Amino acid sequence: MFKDKVVIVTGASRGIGRAIALKFAKLGANIVVNYRNSVEAVEKVKTEIEELGGKALIVQGDVSNFEDAKFIIDRAVEEFGKIDILVNNAGITKDGLLLRMKEDDFDKVINVNLKGAFNCIRHVTPIMMKQRNGKIINISSVIGICGNAGQVNYSAAKAGIIGMTKSTAKELASRGITVNAIAPGYIVTDMTEVLPEKVKKNMESIIPLKRLGKPEDVANLAAFLASDDAAYITGQVINVDGGMVM
Ligand SMILES: NC(=O)c1ccc[n+]([C@@H]2O[C@H](COP(=O)([O-])OP(=O)(O)OC[C@H]3O[C@@H](n4cnc5c(N)ncnc54)[C@H](OP(=O)(O)O)[C@@H]3O)[C@@H](O)[C@H]2O)c1
């Protein structure tokens, strides 16, 4: 389905990003695997992609840094000559109640989760415009839609991603580029592993499909949105949350 396509996945060393990278590799794509710190984990992802028959280029870089984002995009073009799909997945949490939230914890989450996506889109856009095709997929969250106590910074960033997705979709539609957002619910990864067992059990009970999500649940939608079958879909936000928010 994606034979010879080039996909950049930010934050692909672990969790949802890793699952997205492996899904595209399984479907024939070559993958640019971005990460920030997890060297061992990212080497493993590269091996897994190669075992699936794809090429993997690891590019270290902090997406919140404008120049690092440029480096990621430039390396992809240098290696593969084009970029078909960009998945803005890299994200962090720094939770805390508003009254106690440090300014730095607000800034860091906005810088990685929102500005990081802007940085990558900003640098990939001229390339996709020249190609007159491209798919951009931004990973938002249901928390950006319905909010959550203790996550003022995170929900602001994820709501920002939704606005950015829609504006970018409108700007780039005439150039053959689609831009969509995925809003995952509760997905089992390192990010959610830290939550107390009681919270997880409670989540399970309120999710209509009665289970927590898997990274692959998100990866399946990313692959669909990047496929020709989704050619007439742009500017949309699609939840992958077992029915948690509707
Ligand atoms: N898990 C959920 O329930 C859930 C729900 C809704 C939305 N999401 C969103 O889905 C995305 C992935 O989440 P996850 O649960 O898979 O998280 P995760 O397991 O914590 O993995 C985060 C990934 O992002 C990378 N990363 C973090 N900061 C970065 C930066 N500044 N530059 C480049 N890479 C960076 C990490 O790289 P290193 O390992 O190298 O640090 C890692 O690969 C995030 O945007 C998150 O907000 C997750």
From TrEMBL:
Signal peptide: none
Pfam families according to UniProt: adh_short_C2 (PF13561)
GO biological process: fatty acid biosynthetic process; steroid metabolic process
Domain Ketoreductase: residue ranges: 5-185
Single GO molecular function: NAD binding
Active site: Y154
Catalytic activity: a (3R)-hydroxyacyl-[ACP] + NADP(+) = a 3-oxoacyl-[ACP] + NADPH + H(+)
Group of enzyme by EC: oxidoreductase
Pathway: Lipid metabolism; fatty acid biosynthesis
Binding site for NADP(+): G11, A12, S13, R14, N89, Y154, S155, A156, A157, K158, I187
Keyword Manganese: no
Transmembrane feature ranges: none
UniProt-listed Enzyme Commission number(s): 1.1.1.100
Keywords noted in UniProt: Fatty acid biosynthesis, Fatty acid metabolism, Lipid biosynthesis, Lipid metabolism, NADP, Oxidoreductase, Steroid metabolism
Family annotation (SUPFAM superfamilies): NAD(P)-binding Rossmann-fold domains (SSF51735)
Free-text function comment from the UniProt entry: Catalyzes the NADPH-dependent reduction of beta-ketoacyl-ACP substrates to beta-hydroxyacyl-ACP products, the first reductive step in the elongation cycle of fatty acid biosynthesis.
Self-association state and partner proteins as the record states: Homotetramer.
Family per record: Belongs to the short-chain dehydrogenases/reductases (SDR) family.
Annotated protein name in UniProt: 3-oxoacyl-[acyl-carrier-protein] reductase
Naturally occurring in which organism (per UniProt): Clostridium tepidiprofundi DSM 19306
Higher taxonomy: Bacteria, Bacillati, Bacillota, Clostridia, Eubacteriales
Gene name per UniProt: fabG_2
